[in-house]
Structures are given as C-alpha cells and as structure tokens.
Amino acid sequence: MSTERSNKFYIHTFGCQMNQADSAIMTALLVQDGYVPAENEQDAGIILLNTCAVRENAVERIEHYLQHLLGMKRKQKDLILGVAGCIPQYQREEMFSMSPAIDFLAGPDTYRTLPSLIRQVRAGTRASSLEFDPAETYEGIDPLRQGAITAYVPVMRGCNNMCAYCVVPFTRGRERSHAFSMVLEEVRKVAASGYREITLLGQNVNSYCAPDTALDFAGLLDAVSREVPDLRIRFTTSHPKDISEALVRTIAGRPNICNHIHLPVQSGSSRVLGLMNRGHTIEEYREKIALARSIIPDVSLSTDLIAGFCGESEEDHQLTLQLLSDIRFDAAYMFFYSTRPGTLAARTLEDDVPDPVKKRRLQEIIDLQNAISAELLQEAVGSVVEVLAESESKRSAGQLMGRTETNRAVVFDRQGYQPGDLVRVLITSATSATLTGTPA
Ligand code: SAH
Ligand code: SF4
Ligand code: F3S
After folding, report:
1. Pocket test for ligand 3, best of 14, 19, 51, 165 (most atoms within 8 A of CB)
2. Residues near 58 by beta carbon (within 8 Å), at least 6 away in sequence
3. In angstroms, what is the span from residue 139 Cα to ligand 1's centroid?
4. Does residue 208 have its Cβ closer than 6 Å to ligand 1?
5. Ligand 3 lining (C-beta closer than 6 Å)
6. What residue ranges do the domains of the chain occupy?
7. How far is the CA of 335 from the centre of ligand 2 (A)?
C-alpha cells in the first residue's frame, strides 16, 4: 500500500555535524509518530529545513531556498513547511517574516514537539516551539541515521564559551553532557547495527563531563574505544583549553582511536585571540600542538580560521600565516569574519576590517594552506595506508572512496572490496584534496 504524500516528510540538513545528528533524531521522532521518510522533496507532504546561523551566507542560503519552497507551495497547497535548528532559535518568531511559506518553527531543544507542531498547522495556525531546555539530551530516542558505515554519536549539546564572534551559544543554549550510560548504550547499538566508525560529537567535545559518573572526555573516549574495539573512533570538535595529556595519551594508547585532532585556532595572534575571547594565547595553543606531536608523532591536525576579525591588523594577519607555515596542518576550514547580531563582538567591537581586505587576507590564508595540504598529500605517495571504504567513488563504480585514520580521502580500485571494509591501500598519486591508490 502506498503511503499518502501528506504523511511523508523530507528533511534538508544544513550546517555542522551536530545538525546532521539532530536530523537523525527528528527522523526518529517523526517515524515514532507514524510519519514516513520520503525519498525526495517532491514526494513529501512535510518539508523540514534544519538550518545553520553561524555566518551570514548560511542564512542567505536558507532565504534563497525558502523562495524555491514558496514556489512549490503555490502548486501544492497542503504542503507543510517547518524550519528547525539554529536560525529560528536565534531569530525566534521574527523568522516567520522571512517567508509566507513557513508554517512552523522549532529549535534544537524542542524536537519532541514536532508532531504537535504539525497538528497545529493542520488545524490552521502557524506554530512555533522555541524554548531552551537545558536538560534535553534526547535520551531514549534512537536516531535514524543516513548511511550505514559511519555514525555520529553526540555526547553533549550546547556551548558555555562565549567566543566573541560566535552565535552558537545563542542558538544551542547551555552546555550539557549526556549521561555516560546513555553514550555507551548508543555506541553499542550503533555497533550492533553494523556501523564501522563512530564520531563522538560536541561543540567542545573534550569539555565532556559525565553527569552520572563525572568521567572526563579522556575517560569517555577510552571507555568507548574498549566497548567497540573493532570500530574506528573519531571525535570533534576539540577546544584547545581542554586538550590534556591524559587525552593525548588515550588517543595514542588505543589502536582504534583515530590519530586525528581537529583543533580550531581561529587566529595566529594572541591579541586577536584575546579580542575573540578564546581563553588562550597562541603560545598556549602551540604548546598543545607540541604536546600532541611529542606523544603521537604522526598525529594529523586540522583547524578552523577566521580572517578579518574586528581589530585585526596586517601584522596579526601575518602571524596567522606564520602559524600555518610553522604547524603545517593537514587541513583547515577557512572563513572571513561575518558579524552575527547579538554576539559579544557585534555588541562591543567594531567590524572595522573592510570587506575587500577580509577577502584578500582569507585568499592568502587559503592559498598558503592549500599549498601545504598539497605538499603533505604528495608526501603520502608511495606509502601504504589503511582506508575504511565508505562508498562507491562518485566517478566510477570500479572505485571506492574511503578515509585514512588521519581523515584523508582516498579513492582506490575496488578489486572486490565493499563499503565497510578496512583496506590497505598503496598510494599512487595525489591531487590537491584527494589521494588515489590501489589495494596493496
Ligand atoms: N564549536 C566549534 C565550532 C564552532 S562553528 C568550535 O568551537 O570550534 C565552526 C567554525 O565557524 C568556527 O570554528 C569558526 O572558525 C567559524 N565561525 C564561527 N562564527 C563565525 C563568524 N561569525 N564569522 C566567520 N566564521 C565563524
Ligand atoms: Fe562558538 Fe566558541 Fe562555543 Fe565553539 S567554543 S561553539 S566557537 S562559542
Ligand atoms: Fe551552524 Fe548551529 Fe552548527 S549555527 S555550525 S548548525 S551549531
């Protein structure tokens, strides 16, 4: 029997891994209430956007998407459109004025109310549910994930830091760690479902502190890696202030924890880090990197950078370039500063670096980092690496795509292997972002 379109839903996920994990929770909550996932937007009677507010262009993307959905709604009068995630949480009911197409709004802590929001819309009203609930961890919900090889497992929600540029504390509320028992149970279920890799997630994952056992993140990571010794374990995002020697020793000591740390630095200048309210100097950051490298010599490091923050001088920018040359990160996510209304920076600092200067500095950062990433990839040619095959390669079914422990993408000849297999691959060539190889 085919399911009525009105009963089918489709979720578009924008933003970070946390939003992807939340979409899996929303899917579970809707399925629990009798709704059915649609293959695509055209088949759905309910469309949900799970949105990101971190930069202005993320919000612009949603504005454009809403125009497209308004067109769809004109043709399909009973289509229900909900906007969830970080933008409605931040803009609250004002978001309704963004588009007449929006029927309901939900924030990161209110997904349990989705069925009731849909019922209110069907009864003829626009509805919203935007309360913060500092106790909500979605305990008891089994996320329905996309994909079958790698799974995200959130271990905390929210953020208590007040980085001056950042909207996340306003969109996701107070930091709360999930119970240790809850994380372990989810990890066991993920392993039993056949997943091969788990990424523990949190805005500051290494600030984890178990509410039930007071275990810290090093303890959690150790316990998780022992619980599922055949699965690869990753974690993101780490905050420099909470990189401890115990954590680095845990990564080094457990073979199934990937030797990769994503450690956002944002700027190479202590003065700018101070303005950003990051809570550490660049010397302290360099010490954390030195600690990681002294215990795990081949550790892979990646970072986030913001160009053109308030008050950033040419000299500060040069310090960022110097940091990149010194550390030689494997990869970096690089952005130019975008003011977010309501943040500490928007309220107390002047957005005084002109746009063309921000963009030029960002380009210099990107050019330098791309050259470093390409050199590091080139150095991998001729080596044999262990790759977890994730999917068929986009270019050909005769090749698989996977990742190394150090999070590098590798495309290799299939030779009978399947997604989910761990394969030793000889690297034969490298482009700027991908390694290519053949089973060794
Ligand atoms: N919780 C993580 C990620 C936060 S958002 C962390 O603490 O690192 C991801 C990245 O977006 C940040 O690391 C930062 O580099 C960037 N970012 C956040 N706010 C921004 C803004 N207003 N303008 C430009 N980039 C921003
Ligand atoms: Fe934003 Fe800073 Fe929290 Fe990361 S640690 S989410 S950058 S406020
Ligand atoms: Fe964006 Fe919200 Fe994640 S603002 S980066 S989706 S926490």
Report:
1. 19
2. 14, 15, 51, 52
3. 27
4. no
5. 15-16, 18-19, 52-54, 85-86, 167-168, 171-172
6. 3-129, 150-379, 384-439
7. 15
State the number of CA atoms in the 13 A half-sphere of 97 facing the CB.
4
How big, in percent rounded to 5, are the helix, strand and coil portions of the chain? 40, 25, 40
The ligand 1 atom nearest the CA atom of 340: 22
Nearest-angstrom CA–CA distance, 363 and 379: 24
Q: Is 239 in the pocket of ligand 2 (CB under 6 A)?
A: yes
Q: Which ligand 2 atom is nearest residue 167's CA?
A: 1
* C-beta of residue 440 within 8 angstroms of C-beta of residue 424: yes
Q: Using CA atoms, how far apart are residues 83 and 102, in angstroms rounded to an integer?
A: 7
pTM value surpassing 0.85: yes
Per-residue pLDDT of the chain (440 residues), as tens digits, is: 456 889 999 999 999 999 999 999 999 999 999 999 999 999 999 999 999 999 999 999 999 999 999 999 999 999 999 999 999 999 999 999 999 999 999 999 999 999 999 999 999 999 999 999 999 999 999 999 999 999 999 999 999 999 999 999 999 999 999 999 999 999 999 999 999 999 999 999 999 999 999 999 999 999 999 999 999 999 999 999 999 999 999 999 999 999 999 999 999 999 999 999 999 999 999 999 999 999 999 999 999 999 999 999 999 999 999 999 999 999 999 999 999 999 999 999 999 999 999 999 999 999 999 999 999 999 999 999 999 999 999 888 899 999 999 999 999 999 999 999 999 999 999 987 889 999 99
266 Cα nearest atom in ligand 2: 7
Looking from the CA of residue 90, the nearest atom of ligand 3 is 4
Whole-angstrom Cα Rg for the chain: 22
What is the whole-number distance in angstroms between the Cα of residue 76 and the centre of ligand 2? 40
Query: CATH number of 384-439: 3.40.50.360, 3.40.50.720, 2.40.50.140, 3.30.450.20?
Result: 2.40.50.140
Peptide bond into 237 cis (omega under 30): yes
* From 203, 239, 243, 272, mutation site for ligand 2 pocket: most ligand atoms within 8 A of C-beta: 203
167 lines ligand 2 (CB under 6 A): no
Domain spanning 3-129: CATH 3.20.20.70: no
Q: Which CATH architecture has domain 150-379?
A: Alpha-Beta Horseshoe (3.80)
* 3-state class (DSSP) for residue 439: strand
State if residue 361 touches ligand 2 by the CB under 6 angstroms criterion: no
Which residue is it, tokens 């952005």? 335
| Ligand sitting nearest the alpha carbon of 16 | 3
